[in-house]
């Protein structure tokens, strides 16, 4: 009987750009019994999580907490809380998720200006800065790591230009946080959105964000506490139109995440446990060591892919460490290869979106999935699958090339 | 060092109106390894969950799936996807969560008409129906079980009147689903929102919803698939203004939860596992047996409270099975009692909101927390705490009265 089946999740090697395998220690804490949301034992966990998130984000910002929803819930909470109808937003697009920033901004009434570069490359900071100076937007929103094209955008110079031009700089770091360096304060980022299901190795369902006083000042001007719990003083501070969404209203959420503990939603207990453990593990490993680990396994994967005779997609200088895009050899059905990898090997790699669909595979090296055994098994699986389908590739070279990379490192990280 | 602490969650007996204790079997499946969102093994779990939710909701609706967020994310998804600026919404208010329905509706541009009855009572259906006929609203939104006052509203006659007046009937059943009877189809409910953290005994973080073809028809007219993945055909069906929120856009979510598997968010894997198991357990127990269990433990709790000499708050005829509101005896500091219960006994009960804050305690009997041992321990803890603070109550009577209830039942459920 279909509707009474016991949950059945077969083992997988997940090498997509997310969701990736959760750390077993994270999975274990998910089973911790529930606490009430205003239990001091729970608010302590909330505070500890904020403290650890600040360290992960490399920021002194007061506000660093998760939105209870998937990564795009974090994007929407930040954009919806900042953007007022008619605001000018500048979004340089270099892949799908630039379109998403544009889409959400427009839904909240922004007048969005885009420049776009070819998918597979990124912008010279100078080009973006020129456009900021020319158009003087209120907000600049950008993706840091584009999973759709496997590119990473340099941000620091752009952030500095935003600050100089009094624009708010909002960054989507969902694909990079915990995998490569993200410096919120040093890069002049005013608000940043992360995701859990990629390099943090926590299941999907929370979106840690951070924002500084410039953003807080803006949000506080829009403060509206909901009926039934608002005090008279609550709504008197408002000098700008209130934020439309209740769920994503950062003026209420920051009161929930402060000592006031304003009753808003009921915090997602188990997911917060998972985030707490995921970030704790990450900081215990150490940011620099973790970034080096991501670099190493990417290097081994890329060496294996190239040794097989396959080519990488996109501009090499802007390659994102955590996503490797591989051009599907001509005559090969990419989806057919992906199915075989999943059905025969239990390995999942990804396809891509829009103009790149059917043209590239995307292989993630993120978080707990970013391991030597996973890289070696994925190369082995891909080689065997391609050979089985009659593709002309170099047999037996990929694993040797990857092992060469591992052997050349003094310490396996 | 504060920011590297291992997660520490002490054991608790949680007798609030939510979040309550998660079923240990639910906690166990939370540790199941991750699957990719488009892995056939995962989409099978998505489909099984939809099938089980239909049974829980007692509906033949095609659409029954969770929103990835806490309960109010479900409220906002439904209201934001239906309401267009200028729409008339009628919300009869009998507690805090009627205010929340009003609040969210107004944020999305609705013109809301309210009637309010004294907190502690509910509406005669005739009164609501008269108002529907008089004002002819496009939408009627109501709470089924009000946790803030511990009341339950009779809905069937109101639902019938909505259908006859061509109004859409939206119901917040967060506090009742899985604990008392909720009949979506029989009661003419067009859209219903549930929560996981109360009678379903799954952690907070998902909001299962259902809606029928009347609502779907409306949503489809507002369809907007986001940039970067929309096909030309996608946005041609739109004849009404698009839904503002991207995250809560049911026109995209229903494409994600159908065979099309439109890429929207990354489904919250572990929480879906938990929901799947929670609803499976619930249906395995059987709806009627589960409702009878909730009745029994409420009866024992109420008998104990009364035997102690305490009084219940509110109109008896409309008492909500899953929440018992107790009047705080005069001269007693309610928060002080709650603190002692938590600190000495590890028992959590709730206070209330707005006009009832400091006037009543609220004790939940919900889901996995709704058990004989929990009821007996809570009564023992409350009695001992009150005696310790010098309250004049009947000593030694509460547990005897509760045991009398249990003994009088042929079968302990």
Low-confidence parts of chain A lasting 5 or more residues at pLDDT below 50?
Answer: none
Number of strands of chain A: 13
Largest interface: A-B, 92 and 93 residues
Q: Mean pLDDT score of chain A, rounded?
A: 96
> How much is the radius of gyration of chain A in Å?
22 Å
Largest sheet of chain A: 7 strands, mixed
In terms of quaternary structure, what is this? homodimer
Shape label of chain A? globular
The CATH homologous superfamily of the largest domain in chain A is called Type I PLP-dependent aspartate aminotransferase-like (Major domain)
Count up the helices of chain A: 13
**CATH fold-level name of the largest domain in chain A:** Aspartate Aminotransferase, domain 2
Tell me the structural class of chain A.
alpha/beta
Family (chains A, B): Belongs to the class-V pyridoxal-phosphate-dependent aminotransferase family.
Cofactor (chains A, B): pyridoxal 5'-phosphate
InterPro entries (chains A, B): Aminotrans_V_dom, Aminotrans_V_PyrdxlP_BS, PyrdxlP-dep_Trfase, PyrdxlP-dep_Trfase_major, PyrdxlP-dep_Trfase_small, SP_NH2Trfase/AEP_transaminase
GO molecular function (chains A, B): transaminase activity
